[in-house]
Specification:
alpha/beta, FAD/NAD(P)-binding domain, 3 domains, 5-stranded parallel beta sheet, 31% helix
Length: 465
């Protein structure tokens, strides 16, 4: 039986982060992966293929809107399956890159499923499609980074070709005319944007009263308005009653009595942690009803030497955060006195069209905490770069303390928001430069979208009494 300092379960972002941190610090580490290739759900079924699809749709839309390409627009029509195919090259490139990380750092990849025999012993059981026998590993520490999968309510038949989740929609072989999306979280809103840009009729069912209520209200309202403008029908405060899946269509019935017919139903209402099939109950770890594992601020589970990182540990369930969580878990193994990861500086990236990104506190949170603040805004339509690229829908909003002038939150809606947000994130992370005045005293290239920070800073400071 081989002995390792750290055994990592899963090769998604969290697993990769944990494994690479251990390897770079000269610890003996092994990684268990039950799928045929590395990368986890992020690479094969989630982030990479869906964002590659989004980019393909965005590129198509840009061509269709460009007045210089007017002659091409009438003949420009691409079917949904063709757009999906554009993601294959990206997935292959990502898998190759990630495989090289393990090879270069001499980290063995063990194919199979992990099964705990005791808190320090793991049995790697080969999947039916793989060859080889069972292997046992002894581990001083374990990082569980097994990810998550779409939640499947038992009353829905996901084997029906017109009933899809966020994984299987990436293999839908037709060009839908009408799509119903149940669940208006991040995934639901992203796919609503994608299908709207393809010219589909989209009905988005929201079980809450507002889209993406964790966002700043102004940004959430901007997204809702933009989806409406594109023709999306949003049904708030609705609950599932039943689904009739037929040969030619599906009919979704809601508890309000409303019936919605469409070509396909995309169920995007929640995810389930991949915690089953590991014998966790035998070692004192009990996942919640959604399969997620409770952890402390250092990503430790109820068993101190076993950590959980990424989607398996719940919020924020972002690929970017998962990688950092994996690294942070291993850092705590290496240096037990290290400070915990600053969750308040993890940005959110929502890849709607246009995209959304936020970091820090929202106006609602500042009001609840009675923190004196002011807001500075810059509309994209007033920026030269946005006018040149014809991406004029958008807003950058900076929230700052009225007395100390410290930046408390940055929220962005518009093209490139997930890139733009990092300037604000960097300023917030630095105690030396964190001030709204930093954006006035710094020179930004012109014309750029980053110039929005200077415009928003002046706008906010001009509001001070």
């Amino acid at each position: 039986m081989e002995h390792y300092d750290v055994v990592v379960i899963g090769t998604g972002p969290a697993g990769e982060g944990a494994a690479m941190m251990a390897a770079k610090n000269h610890r003996r580490v092994a990684v268990i992966e039950r799928y045929a290739s590395v990368g986890g759900g992020c690479t094969h079924w989630g982030t990479i293929p869906s964002k590659a699809l989004r980019q393909a749709v965005k590129s198509l839309r840009e061509v269709q809107r460009n007045p210089l390409l007017h002659a091409l627009r009438s003949s420009m029509h691409v079917e949904y399956p063709n757009l999906l195919a554009s993601a294959n090259d990206v997935i292959e490139a990502q898998v190759a890159s990630r495989r090289r990380f393990y090879d270069r750092n001499h980290v063995p990849l063990l194919a199979g499923s992990a099964w705990f025999l005791d808190p320090h012993t793991i049995e790697v059981r080969p999947e039916a499609a793989t060859h080889g026998g069972t292997v046992r590993l002894a581990a001083d520490h374990v990082v569980i980074a097994s990810g998550s999968r779409p939640y499947h309510p038992p009353e829905l038949d996901f084997t029906h070709p017109r009933v899809r989740d966020s994984d299987s929609i990436l293999h839908y072989a037709h060009n839908p005319f009408a799509v119903t999306i149940f669940g208006a979280g991040v995934i639901g809103c992203e796919y609503a944007s994608i299908f709207l840009s393809l010219g589909c009729k989209v009905t988005l069912i929201n079980t809450h009263g507002q889209l993406l209520s964790f966002l700043d209200d102004e940004i959430a309202e901007a997204l809702s308005y933009h989806l409406h403008e594109q023709g999306c029908v949003i049904r708030h405060n609705e609950q599932f009653a039943r689904l009739e899946a037929r040969e030619q269509d599906v009919v979704l019935e809601l508890q309000s009595g409303r019936r919605i017919r469409s070509d396909v139903l995309l169920w995007a209402n929640g995810r389930t942690g991949n915690s089953d099939g590991m014998n966790l109950s035998a070692i004192g770890i009990t996942p919640d009803p959604r399969g997620q594992i409770r952890v402390n601020e250092h990503s430790q589970t109820a068993v101190a030497h076993i950590y959980a990182a990424g989607d398996i540990s719940g919020s924020p369930a972002l690929a970017s955060a998962a990688y950092v969580q994996g690294c942070s878990a291993t850092r705590h193994i290496l240096y037990p006195s290290i400070a915990p990861l600053r969750a308040d500086l993890i940005p959110s990236g929502i890849y709607t069209l246009p995209e959304i990104s936020s970091v820090g506190l929202t106006e609602r949170e500042l009001l609840e905490r009675k923190i004196p603040y002011e807001a500075g805004r810059a509309s994209f339509k007033n920026l030269a770069r946005a006018q040149m690229t014809n991406e004029k829908i958008g807003l950058l909003k900076i929230l700052f303390h009225t007395e100390s002038l410290r930046v408390l939150g940055v929220h962005c809606f518009g093209d490139g928001a997930a890139e733009i947000i990092h300037i604000g994130q960097t300023v917030m992370a630095s105690s030396d430069i964190n001030s709204i005045r930093y954006f006035i005293d710094t020179t930004f290239n012109y014309p750029t979208m980053a110039e929005a920070y200077r415009v928003a800073a002046y706008n906010g400071l001009n509001r001070l009494a």
